[in-house]
Amino acid sequence: MRNSWSNRKLYQTLCRKKTFTDEFEPGKEKLKRVLNIFDLTALGIGSTLGCGVYVLAGTVAKSIAGPAVVLSFIVAAIVSSFSGVCYAEFAGRVPKAGSAYIYSYVTVGEFIAFFIGWTLYIEHTIGTASVAKAMTNYLDALLGDPQKRYFKKHLPMHVDFLGEYPDFASFFFVIFIALIVAWGVKKSSTLNKVFTMLNLLTLATVVASGFFLGKLSNWNIPKSEIPPGVDGGNGGFSPFGWNGIIAGAARCFYGFIGFDSIATTGEETKDPKKTIPLAIILSLFFVTVAYSSVASVLTLMWPYYDQDPDAPLPVIYANMGMPIIKYMVTCGAVFALMTT
């Protein structure tokens, strides 16, 4: 009997749910509600539309989906929207900070929320480190690799699971961003909006120039015109068939990760029950349009099988003799990394 009671007590403890009573009453808020729909939409776009928009389309188009990478992005967007509407519904029901952690705490219990909370912590820690590393690598390459050459010579690290050298620039970049966030949510939101607008302006320039310079013939390249030894599939708009489109969608899905950051602002948003769901939907819409447009002009301007997998847009503009737009795209990637 005692064991049965203990097991039942343990089960109740692990499955107890978070409840809110008077926490939503005026004057009980711990954080200032200063964010509006424009702030949250910019946050969602900035967090989702990262440097992947400058790289992902070229990688998928080259050897996975071809020009049909546009369809891959649309399929990925549809799948992402299922997750998006779930976040939107939970944000409307539980307008609190904490994202998936607080949602699971309220609906399924503390034990599951514990694991989700730590998973989110690990996800954001690894993501922050990855973006910081990508940021400094990008800037270092743009300046001629001064940091890489210096530290590989003077402070090399000969450990298999570590980098070739200590990346101090990444460390100071993370500290810099942390100071901006600590400065205040409104000020950091304003800075995020500035970088997001610069990123969108860069993408608009790419799309406009791409549709002007693109050739429809690049969407219908026959197999006979594909150079020998190049993995170009069967040619045409979908050289790798539906298998390639779906495989490409799996890769493109990564490009839609980030909109859930909107859900973490529940206690800093004006009217979160309406603003957060709408911001999530708007972010997914604008990101889908941006990815699809960039993928379209990328494959219209240059044959899909000849795309550079690491930096497709700068290479294309360099090959077309347009260095100004090339450097604009390079700066746009930096802006995207800043918002991510």
Description:
It comes from Aphis glycines (Soybean aphid). InterPro entries: AA/rel_permease1. Keywords: Membrane, Transmembrane, Transmembrane helix. It is a multi-pass membrane protein. This is Cationic amino acid transporter C-terminal domain-containing protein. The chain is an all-alpha fold. It has a single domain, classed as Amino acid/polyamine transporter I (Up-down Bundle), CATH 1.20.1740. The protein has 13 helices and no strands. It has helices spanning 2-14, 37-48, 52-65, 69-93, 100-107, 110-142, 146-154, 168-183, 185-213, 241-252, 272-301, 312-319, 323-339. α2 packs parallel to α11 (272-301) and α9 packs parallel to α11 (272-301). The mean pLDDT is 81.
- Count of individual helical segments: 13
The largest pleated sheet is described as:
none
- Number of structural domains: 1
Terminal Cα separation, in Å? Answer: 55 Å
CATH class: Mainly Alpha
The CATH homologous superfamily is called Amino acid/polyamine transporter I
Order of helices and strands: HHHHHHHHHHHHH
Mean pLDDT: 81
The parts where pLDDT drops under 50 for at least 5 residues are: none
Query: Can you give the helix content as a percent range?
Result: 55-70%
Q: DSSP strand (E) fraction?
A: under 5%
Task: Please tell me the CATH architecture by its name.
Answer: Up-down Bundle
Rg calculated over all Cα atoms: 23 Å
The name CATH uses for the topology is Amino acid/polyamine transporter I
User: Per the principal axes of the C-alpha atoms, what is the gross shape?
Assistant: globular
Q: What is the structural class?
A: mainly alpha
β-strand number? 0
